[in-house]
Design brief:
With about 575 residues, the chain is an alpha+beta fold. Among the domains are: about 5-195 and about 565-580, Serine Threonine Protein Phosphatase 5, Tetratricopeptide repeat; about 325-435, no CATH class. Helices cover about 40% and strands about 10% of the residues. It starts with a strand and ends in a 12-residue tail after the last helix.
Length: about 575
């Protein structure tokens, strides 16, 4: 058992405008430190700090665990530098498999430890602080539930530890729990936590609830748990009713809604702006050190691994490698890029370079355009006749071969475009790390889960249509509450299957690159078929494009719907069995 736990000073982690005179880490005697609400809050922030780890939402569970899909891939056509994981070519010994499993359980242990220490300290906590401490415990329960949800949906056959004593038993005694039991535990945790947590906009208990878990966080996560539980592999279709009811509670509460401007989401995420209107659950990153190389910093790969490429050593910008790419055929099938603002707010058909060049450059055979930033240009490839090639050119019926070849490796992701949204002086000088935030659950996701649940129960209704149309109208920059039909609205008169596909497509357009697509395809039972079809579609769009989509080669049906139990854990836990598709 750990004799000390790390308490993160709340102001230093979540409030970018705070004084940096305090140390980020305070080492404390856990048996006596928790004496009031303030000390409990400090320890709680250690759990929030865990979520920032690269093995959790700093990279793995946010970015790379969502690869590969029909909408996103890793760059290149080799398996080097961890591309094996991103192409489903990894083994049970892969470090990203092992470390994410380990860090999720470490966070669960810390949550259990926090709750146990609060329980033992109750008698010395002032009565006026008890309500706040109850909220902090509820937050810890949501974090524990989140970790179990990530474990069960990625590995399915896992152990369930609800106390630190269970975790400290010898690994030879650990057994895999029935997944339905794990889901039942998650359900109870989230429902009971939601009863104690305030809505983000009605919080009179916490002095500052920026980026902290609220009732909306717990209910939004519970809705996602239900739609996953209802799908493959458990297929408990009764959970559609539960999902519908939870989503209705969020929607009818009036405590959350859609931001009027879709782009505001990404400006906020790149600049540490807290707006709980649409953000139900958000992972906050903040590093006061400009290099972000200090061990105490809380930074992630958001916007660097999944952003718009910036040429190395481009001054005054910071390098962005952008190894995560939008799949070309996903961009090609987007139905209305002329009117749907989300297309170019989600994908970029250019990259950045620090230069004064404009127009065609014979020196490097590139086309340069103004970016709106002094000394920085958008860079496009050129086609025959030395004209700029953008994706509209490449996707046209008469698109030339060279125009299509410009997108053999896909398009860049524009949602976390640090060059566009962040001031150059605010960017971390480390080329791999940023302070951009990660949306875990947005209100638009709740609307789409609601529509999906309604359709699975009874087919499309006017309420389900309205939920989807609100999301689409906002994407088109229209009034979401218009009483008149708009160009953004879905076609009327759909049957259940047609509406089901419309929702699946809409989830791709609205939530693309936000860490949900792979799990969506898995719960719909179409993951393998979708990967195979994507390879075919790429070759149909342009011959041999699937050379840069190795997922079509390595994905195996019945295997890659789950991650393998880490080999290290199998070696330590003889009662464990490897997931079926990963058995030798």
């Amino acid at each position: 058992m750990k004799k000390e736990i790390i308490a993160i000073i709340a102001a230093a982690v979540l409030v970018p405008s705070c004084s940096l005179d305090e140390n980020l880490y305070t080492y404390i005697d856990e048996s006596t430190y928790i004496t009031d609400a303030a000390s409990a809050r400090n320890v709680l922030f250690g759990l929030y700090r865990n979520l920032c780890s690269l093995d959790l939402y700093g990279d793995r569970l946010s970015i790379v665990y969502d690869l590969p899909t029909d909408i996103a891939k890793v760059d290149g056509n080799s398996l080097v530098n961890n591309r094996d994981f991103c192409c489903n070519a990894h083994t049970a010994s892969n470090s990203w498999v092992q470390n994410t499993w380990r860090y999720a359980y470490n966070t669960i242990y810390n949550a259990n430890d926090f709750m146990e220490k609060v329980a033992s300290a109750r008698s010395r906590i002032p009565e006026d602080d008890q309500a706040a401490v109850d909220v902090y415990v509820a937050e810890a329960r949501v974090i524990r539930a989140l970790m179990y949800f990530e474990l069960v949906r990625n590995w399915e056959n896992i152990s369930l530890f609800t106390t630190t004593a269970q975790s400290r038993l010898h690994p030879s005694t650990f057994r895999q729990e029935d997944p339905e039991t794990v889901y039942g535990f998650i359900e109870t945790e989230l429902r009971e936590a939601a009863e104690l947590l305030p809505w983000a906009t009605e919080d009179n208990i916490r002095t500052d609830n920026s980026f902290m878990i609220s009732k909306g966080s717990a209910l939004g996560l519970l809705a996602r748990v239900y739609v996953t539980w209802a799908g493959y592999p458990l297929l408990d279709t009764d959970k559609w009713t539960d999902a519908k009811e939870v989503c209705e509670e969020i929607i009818t509460s009036g405590k959350h809604g859609l931001l009027a401007d879709y782009e505001e989401l990404w400006r906020n995420a790149c600049n540490s702006v807290w707006n709980p209107t649409e953000s139900l659950f958000e992972i906050s990153f903040y590093s006061p050190m400009i290099s972000s190389s200090g061990a105490n910093n809380c930074s992630g790969y958001i916007g660097k691994w999944n952003g718009v490429y910036v040429v190395t050593n481009t001054s005054p910008l910071v390098r962005v490698d952008a190894r995560y790419r939008a799949v070309t055929t996903f961009a090609a099938r987007w139905p209305d890029i002329e009117n749907d603002r989300r297309f170019y707010l989600s994908m970029a058909d250019y990259y950045y370079e620090g230069t004064d060049k404009l127009g065609y450059s014979e020196e490097d055979n590139r086309w340069y355009e103004e970016s709106g930033i002094d000394g920085i240009r958008k860079v496009y490839r050129v086609g025959y006749g030395r004209y700029k090639v953008d994706f509209t050119d490449a996707n046209s019926p008469v698109g030339e071969t060279l125009a299509k070849d410009a997108y053999k490796d896909g398009l860049y992701v524009a949602k976390w475009d640090l060059t566009k949204y962040q001031a150059a002086g605010d960017q971390l000088s480390d080329g791999n790390l940023s302070n951009a935030h990660w949306y875990l659950i947005r209100y638009s996701d709740v609307l789409l889960m609601y529509a999906e649940a309604v359709n699975e129960i009874s087919g499309p209704t006017s309420e389900a249509y309205n939920a989807v149309n609100m999301v689409r109208r906002r994407g088109y920059g229209l009034d979401v509450n218009s009483t008149e039909p708009t160009i953004a609205d879905l076609a009327t008169g759909m049957g259940q299957e047609e509406f089901r596909q419309a929702i699946r497509d809409e989830r791709a357009y609205e939530l693309c690159f936000e860490g949900q697509r792979k799990q969506d395809l898995i719960r719909w039972g179409i993951y393998y078929d979708t990967i195979v079809q994507t390879g075919i579609d790429l070759d149909n769009w342009r011959s041999q494009f699937s050379d840069n989509y190795l997922a079509a080669t390595y994905t195996i049906e019945g295997r890659h719907e789950l991650q393998p139990i880490p080999q290290r854990e199998l070696d330590l836990m003889p009662l464990y069995e490897q997931n079926t598709g990963w058995k030798e």
